[in-house]
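Researcher: Let's continue the batch. This sequence belongs to Major facilitator superfamily MFS_1, and it's 414 residues. Same format as the previous ones, please.
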Amino acid sequence: MTAAWAVTAAFGAYFCMYAFRKPFAAAAFKDMVYWGVNLKVMLVVAQVLGYATAKFIGIKVIAEMTPARRAVGILLLIGIAHVALLFFAIVPFALKPLLLFANGLSLGMVFGLVLGFLEGRSLTEALSAGLCASFILADGATKAVGSWLLSQGISEFWMPFVAGLLFIIPLLIFVAMLSRIQPPTTHDIEHRSERLPMTAADRSSFLHRYGIGLGLLVLVYLLITVLRSVRSDFAREIWQSFGQPAEPADFWQSEMIVALGVVLVNGLSVFIRSNRYAFFASLAVSGGGMMLVALALVLRSADLIDGFVVMTLLGLGLYLPYVAVHTTVFERLIAMTRDRGNVGFLLYVADAVGYLGYVVVMLVKNFASPKVNFYDFLATASWLVVVVSTICLLFCGIYFERRMRGLHDYSSPK
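Model: Same format as before. Here are the C-alpha cells for Major facilitator superfamily MFS_1:
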C-alpha cells in the first residue's frame, strides 16, 4: 500500500472525526450560565474532561490494541459521540454538559487508533505529519462549518449534530481505506523496531527506565496542550478581542498557514536516518517553537503586528512542539532504545496529563479571573510556558544524551 494512500486515509479519517468534536466551539452561548459558570466554558470543560478521561483509559487500551480491531473501534467511538450530540440538542439545559462529556469520552481514543496504522515505518514522520495536519486544519475548518450552519439559521444546540451529519459518508470511506493499509515491512522493523502490544509490566518497565526524561517531556506537553487548547476552543473570543469579527475565513486561513509550516518542518525529519539525531533534532524544533511564541508576544506588545499574524505565529509556535511529539519524539525514542513499546502508549500518557491540566486551568481561570479576556490570559500564560518549556527541553536533551551513550543506533549505517 503506498504512502500516499496511507496518509490520505489517516488525514481524512481524523479530519472527519473533528466534525463530531469541534463545531460547537463556533457558537457563543452568550449570556448562558451553568452553576455560576459561563455555559461555553462549562461545555468546553465537560468535553475536555471526557477527552482526558478517555486518555487515561487509553493508556491501557491503546497500548494493548491489536491491529484487527482498530477500524471497527474508530467507527464505534465516533458513532457514540454523534448520538451524544443528538441528545445534546434535545435534553434539558442542565444535562447538556453531561452529553459533551460523553462526546469527549468517545472521541478521546480515536487518534491513538488512527496512529496505530502509521507508526513503526521508515516514513512514519511524514505520515504522522500528514495526520497531524488534519487536526490543525480541521480545527479551523469544522468551526467554519459550524459558523456557516449558524448563519443558515441552525440553532446553537442543533448545529453540532447537523455538522456531524455532513461528514458521515466521507468518514466511512476513509476508515475503509485505513483498514487496507499493510503492516510495516521487515525493512521498517529493522530500522524502527517492531511495535507490539504492551502488557502492564512492559508499560511499568518503560516508565521506570526513562522516567525522568519522560517526565520532562510530559511537563512540556502539558503546558503546550493548555495553550494550544485555549487558542483553539476560544478562538472566536480571541479574534474578537483583537477587534475582528471572527469570520469563518479567519478560522481556516490562519490554520492553513500553520498546518503547512508545521507539517513541512516536522515532516522533514523523515530524511534523518539516525534515530538518535532525529530525536534530538525534534527537541530543537520544539525549542524553536517556543521562540516563535515569544516573538509573537513581543511584536504584539509593540503593536507591530495585527491579530491575524499573532494567531498565526502563536499557532506555529505551539504546534511545532505539539506535532513533534506526535510525529518524531516518541517514535524515534522507541526506535532508538529498541525497547518493547508503541507510540500510542506514550502519547496517551502525555495526553492524559495534558488535557486534565487544561480542565484545571479553565476552571481556575473562570473563578479566579472571569473578566480577563482570553488573549490577555493566553499572553500571560505563554510567557510562563516559554520559560519553563525551554528549560525542560534543555535538561531533557542532556538526560537522554547521557542515557543513550554507547547505545547502538540501528538506523545508522553499519
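Researcher: Any comment?
Model: The chain is about 75% helix and 0% strand.
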